[in-house]
Amino acid sequence: MRAVDIIQKKKEGKTHTKEEINFLIKGLMDGTVEDYQMSSWLMAVCFQGLNEDETAYMTEAFVNSGEILDFSDISNTVADKHSTGGVGDKVTIVLIPLLAALGVKCAKLSGRGLGYTGGTVDKLESIPNFKCQLEDNNFKNQIKTIGAAISAQTPNLTPADGKIYALRDVTATVDNKSLICASVVSKKIASGANIVVLDVKYGAGAFIKTKEEARELADLMIKTGAKLNRKFEAVISSMEQPLGTHIGNSLEIIESIEFLKGSYNEDLYDIVLEIAGHTLILANLAKDFNEAKNLIDEAIKSGSALQKLKEIIKAQGGNPDCIEDCSLFNVGKNKFEIKSKSDGYISKLDALNIAKACKLLGAGRDKKSDDIDFGAGCILNKKIGDKVQKDDILCTLYWNNVEQTRLNEAVKYTEDAFEYSNLKPEIQPVVYK
Ligand code: URA
Fold first, then answer.
1. Closest approach atom of ligand 1 to CA 183
2. pLDDT of the chain along its 433 residues, tens only?
3. Probe residue for ligand 1, chosen from 82, 112, 171 as the CB with the greatest number of ligand atoms within 8 Å
4. Is 183 annotated in the active site?
5. 347 near 421, Cβ under 8 Å?
């Protein structure tokens, strides 16, 4: 078998055997398939697609590239969640400590930024000294002792997805349903959790643009999980405008801390409630959604969820003082305010434009080897449906070190993200299904 023949086959729209997919993934791991060959095959997949069987073969090959964690000696209910990617999506950072504070053991495997979307690992690494690269034993021990751990992939956990994820990020091969499915589902199988809620996002700032496609992706992930003997739940949610108010690595951690202190934006609260609520019911800790909501509100009000975040930060080597002292974060020393061009209501706030602006300011990578600026990003003052007057501040951009041309482009993307109307627009709920 030769990689070049497999690439040619997919380029011609033909169907792969399980052996061919295994050959590619194993080859990538042992160095006999080069990154550029894998990138070329990924692009062929974006044009020609994978069928359900090929998607399941790829998912299985990812899982088999590492180990599957087993928590049966700790608890028979271990939870995990995963988002298909969004802008300002800091749900994990709020949800995991919240669930752990309520007694749900959480084993969370996360990724770095992908395409225009941010990644939990990058966000957490903006906490001074925080380590996401946990050895399997430490990951497990931490779940046993404090109830939750958030780790990046390790050489033992879906390393094939780790390699392909980094290639997809910089080769415009992210937005394919089968590639997203294999990436997400393999990580959720390897993490060993038995309660998994998937957050499938659609809209301008998501890889999947419409509700219908999000539904198809959710179905594909659930079917792929079932073919590999795992049961998943999925929530479909909107990513038309950024989630919450802060976008960018440090800024999103700051917003998450504020959330757990009880000060939050409605859309972020709604999606956290939906996912946490389902998880609590599946874990038999709440009999219905009302009871789950009361538990969640109490964990925020009492400070127990915030305390759990502090414990996670401390256990993973980070400085827990950042919970009280935001000045410990790198927040861009330069800022620029974007002002309203008109009186009226905000009728559109394009998440993709905001993501592009943040990436230009340094919050994401152009190349695999790029460093990111944890301090780059944007804080929104206004969201869809808010009333504005001309020259009101709509948002503020933050950065540390950016060339003038990139900055000008970022400002233009941000200004163009906002549209105005005379009448108050109808506000779509963030949770669709
Ligand atoms: N999150 C992942 O882990 N993989 C994807 O492909 C998209 C979102």
1. 4
2. 999 999 999 999 999 999 999 999 999 999 999 999 999 999 999 999 999 999 999 999 999 999 999 999 999 899 999 999 999 999 999 999 999 999 999 999 898 888 888 899 999 999 999 999 998 889 999 999 999 999 988 888 899 999 999 999 889 999 999 999 999 999 999 989 889 999 999 999 999 999 999 999 999 999 999 999 998 999 999 999 999 999 999 999 999 999 999 999 999 999 999 999 999 999 999 999 999 999 999 999 999 999 999 999 999 999 999 999 999 999 999 999 999 999 999 999 999 999 999 999 999 988 777 889 999 999 999 999 999 999 999 999 999 999 999 999 999 999 999 999 999 999 899 999 9
3. 82
4. yes
5. yes
CA 188 to CA 137: how far, in whole Å? 18
Structure tokens, 172: 């415009």
- Residues 206, 236 contacting (CB under 8 angstroms): no
Report which ligand 1 atom has the smallest distance to the Cα of 117: 8
Atom 1 of ligand 1: nearest residue by CA position: 84
Q: Which atom of ligand 1 is nearest to the CA of 174?
A: 6
Burial class from Cβ neighbours inside 10 Å (0-12, 13-18, 19+) for residue 428 reads middle
H or E element at residue 295: helix 289-301
Compute the distance from residue 251 Cα to the ligand 1 centre, in Å: 21
Asked whether 361 lines ligand 1 (CB < 6 A), one says: no
- Reduce the DSSP state of residue 432 to 3 states and report it: coil
Contacts of residue 283, Cβ cutoff 8 Å, sequence gap at least 6 = 77, 79, 103, 104, 195
